[in-house]
Amino acid sequence: MTEPVLLIGNKNYSSWSLRPWLLLKHFNVAFREEKLRLDTPEFASKIGDWSGARRVPVLRDGTLSVWDSLAICEFINERWLQGRGWPADLAARSFGRAIASEMHSGFAAMRTEMPMNVRRPPRVVALSANAQIDVQRVQQIWMSSLQRFGGPWLLGEFSIADAFYAPVAWRFHGYASAVAAPALEYLEALIAHSSMQQWASAAHAEIERLPQDDL
């Protein structure tokens, strides 16, 4: 059987690529990764062969092609995880899907003002009021989830929800956001995850720079 292929962007910057990559790694699904460097002629010339949306990530499984990080994670859950990407309990599963979808569709100010940059030395930046609201909302989600489900992950066991908030851990770390316990313990657990550390090592080995994300 041919291994699936996950097309990703630069590991230092591509928060969307990290999400399905981390889910596959955490659950030990064998796959091959390919990378297109963001904002390059190579990306512009090749991405259309992968997806009409012209964005990463894209997952190919045989003749099937899935784009968009949330759709990819749901596909992974059905194809290889036998549903283990979400809790078996309906209420917990519904809650998890809601907070993952909120991350997927929201937090525009935080994304703009705190782009993911794994290599970034921790340094505080002045944030707009909207970005501050986003930061507080993320922490509220983390704290309420940990309280409701008992940790160590957002829904108790590692899930798609954790994969979706993983890039935020790098954002909060790089922009030296003030994070209170128990959200801080969760952030530290995400960063310490062995696959997150593997991703970080590869990000530090990259030489490309995107000025708009090196704030």
Top keywords for this entry?
215 residues, four-stranded mixed sheet, 7% strand, 2 domains, globular, Glutathione S-transferase Yfyf (Class Pi), Chain A, domain 2, alpha+beta, 53% helix, Glutaredoxin, 9 helices
Kindly describe this structure.
- The protein is α+β, with helices and mostly antiparallel strands.
- The protein has two domains: 5-83, Glutaredoxin, CATH 3.40.30.10; 90-199, Glutathione S-transferase Yfyf (Class Pi), Chain A, domain 2, CATH 1.20.1050.10.
- It has nine helices and four strands.
- The protein has a four-stranded mixed β-sheet with strand order 2-1-3-4, covered by helices on one side.
- Strand 1, helix 1 and strand 2 (32-35) form a beta-alpha-beta unit.
- The longest helix has 21 residues, at 129-149.
Oligomer: single chain
How big a fraction of the residues is strand? Answer: 5-15%
Order of the strands making up the biggest sheet: 2-1-3-4
The name of the CATH architecture of the largest domain is Up-down Bundle
Give a concise summary.
By secondary structure, the protein is an alpha+beta fold. 53% of the residues lie in helices and 7% in strands.
